[in-house]
Amino acid sequence: MHPVQHRAVLLLPRGEDHRPFPRGHRPAGAKRQGSRVQGAEGPRGMKKGRIPPTPTRNSDSDFFSSDPRPLGPFYSRLRPANGQLMIQTLATVIRNEMIAPGYGRVALACGEGLSRARPGQFVMLGFTDAIDPLLRRPFSIHRLLAGEAEAHGIEVLYKVVGHATRRLSRVSTGEALSLLGPLGRGFQVPPGVKRLSCVAGGFGIAPFVFLAEWLQGRPSAPAVTEIFLGGRSQDDLLCTADFERLGIPVRLTTDDGSCGEQCRVTDPFAAALERERPDLVLACGPKAMLACVLGIVRAHRIPCQLSIEAMMACGMGACLGCAVEGRRDPSRFLHACVDGPVFDAEEIDLG
């Protein structure tokens, strides 16, 4: 049996092969001019034969940006907003621990390929030694593991809900997982934002640890003034110690009253907006919670970004399984894997 080779594969490399149809194939009606093909449409109406390289951006400018969608047509949308190509690699398990009943956290060493990941982005994880489960599963990047110069790995928070996550809960230190990422569009903070409020429902807290640690490492970044975290019971309130360590106040609510206030998480959130208005609200959680948050922020005219939880098979826009109805144009569907998972609240219709 040959040893496993740990190598990263860059997807969509820069160069001559960025074409909307395979080499040697020219659709009817297309005319060739030099090295370009004219008159034929590629994916989503794209007419150019090759995609120009995405310019490398400053490491922070893509996060603190006034342009939430700086990229162009189909293939360019597969590049994260920071201009970095996604990688496919084998990630080695550093540790895997259960942090609450039914919830775990796994740390993965994956080299420097994910060092430029941004809060709100995600990865697809799969198993290398079997075909069941066949497809990778999406997981929000919970934290970057910092090295001497750049991050050398990530942490992923997971909830045990099915066969794939049960198997993930049993992986041991030293095992390898197939990883694809970073994927999607993360949080974008427009210029002038100084105060952020975050609302999370249960497992929706996953991206906010990464966000809080990211912001605290940048002196000119806005401050997270308060986090509102709700769950069915005390067992569903995760990562509170991480925010306490960072000095960020957390308001807790539970459905059964086992911890914090017995109410919906949106109740104290709405009351807090009456006392002090943030510049931007970020939310992640179940669809019903996001819809309630959306109604509250619209009433107060506060900008808001929503991180959508969605089932997906590929993570890069091919399967179309994570469609989200657009609000500006109801006839056009967006996709959580490439247009999101973070959306401006005015982009999508939550029904």
Itemize the secondary structure elements and their pairings.
Elements (H helix, E strand, L loop, with lengths): L8 E2 L20 E3 L2 E3 L35 H4 L9 E14 L2 E7 L12 E6 L9 E10 L4 E9 L3 H7 L6 E8 L11 E7 L4 H11 L6 E9 L8 H6 L4 E5 L6 E2 L3 H10 L4 E5 L2 H14 L3 E4 L15 E3 L7 E3 L6 E3 L7
Parallel strand pairs: 10-11, 10-14, 11-12, 12-13, 14-15
Antiparallel strand pairs: 1-4, 2-3, 4-5, 4-9, 5-8, 6-7, 6-9, 7-8, 15-18, 16-17
Helix pairs in contact: 5-6
How would you sum up this structure, described in words?
This protein has 351 residues and is α/β, with parallel strands linked by helices. It has a domain at 87-183: Translation factors (Elongation Factor Tu (Ef-tu), domain 3, Beta Barrel). The protein is built from 6 helices and 18 strands. The chain has helices at 74-77, 163-169, 206-216, 240-245, 266-275, 287-300, and strands at residues 9-10, 31-33, 36-38, 87-100, 103-109, 122-127, 137-146, 151-159, 176-183, 195-201, 223-231, 250-254, 261-262, 280-284, 304-307, 323-325, 333-335, 342-344. The strands form 4 sheets. The chain has a 7-stranded mixed β-sheet with strand order 13-12-11-10-14-15-18, with helices on both faces. It has a 6-stranded antiparallel β-barrel with strand order 4-5-8-7-6-9. A two-stranded antiparallel sheet has the order 2-3. Helix 5 runs parallel beside helix 6. It is globular and about 55 Å long. It starts with 8 loop residues before the first strand and ends in a 7-residue tail after the last strand. Mean pLDDT is 79; it is low at 1-27, 29-59 and 65-78.
